[in-house]
Automatic annotation (TrEMBL):
Top-rank taxon, per record: Bacteria
Gene Ontology terms, MF aspect: 2',3'-cyclic-nucleotide 3'-phosphodiesterase activity; ligase activity; RNA 2',3'-cyclic 3'-phosphodiesterase activity
Key words, A-Z: Hydrolase, Ligase
Entry keyword annotation includes rRNA processing: no
Name assigned to this protein: 2'-5' RNA ligase
Length: 203
């Protein structure tokens, strides 16, 4: 009974509210191509769930933790690391050309647009990500480096979209972002934006 009393209420504790991650984003032209692709897939396969909003389309470079509130000290350190990496990094292009589901669950899976191994720009993206991870110095970031699969999440739904090759969608990567996701609110706020060669003002 005592054990039960100690555990009572733990299931009602609030979860983290804030997520941080580094990302790159498609430019306006690539975003328009992605939106047209998603529209075709939804019509062809009868998907009903809403697509990810255009302002939230991205490729995650590093997940930087889920937090209870915005950890300003961590944000400040990430700004310093990002500015260091951005100054020395060279721009590159990236291309994505296949659609598939991620995850093992049966329903509400993420449907993603991803790149083939060896696709244009993927090696450069991986090299940039490694330099960013080294600057961050987080053990969690390092642990995730080996399993990096560049992708843009399009929507969450139940299959039946078949894995398929699509017309390549690419864009020039000239900047990267530190993003603050407000969990459960479908909102992203840009906390930092850096060009590959120098920092730009926060949007």
């Amino acid at each position: 009974m005592a054990t039960q009393l100690l555990l009572d209420g733990f299931e009602n504790l609030p979860g983290p509210t804030d997520r941080l991650f580094f990302a790159i984003r498609p430019d306006d032209e690539a975003t328009a191509h992605i939106e047209r692709l998603v529209a075709r897939l939804r019509i062809a396969s009868g998907l009903t769930n809403k697509p990810i909003a255009r302002e939230r389309l991205h490729i995650t470079l590093f997940w930087l933790g889920d937090h209870f509130g915005l950890p300003q000290k961590i944000v400040d350190l990430l700004h310093l690391a990002a500015a260091q990496v951005g100054t020395g990094a060279a721009p590159f292009d990236v291309e994505l050309d296949r659609v598939e589901y991620f995850g093992r669950r049966a329903d509400n899976k993420p449907l993603v647009l991803r790149a083939a191994p060896g696709a244009p720009g993927i090696a450069a993206l991986g090299a940039f990500r490694e330099s960013l991870g080294a600057a961050i110095g987080f053990s969690e970031a390092k642990r995730r480096t080996a399993s990096f699969t560049p992708h843009v999440t399009l929507l969450y739904d139940t299959p039946p979209v078949a894995r398929q090759i699509v017309h390549r969608i690419g864009w020039p990567v000239r900047e990267f972002f530190l993003v603050h996701s407000l969990l459960g609110q479908s909102r992203h706020e840009v906390l930092g934006r850096w060009t590959l060669g120098g920092e730009l003002p926060v949007r």
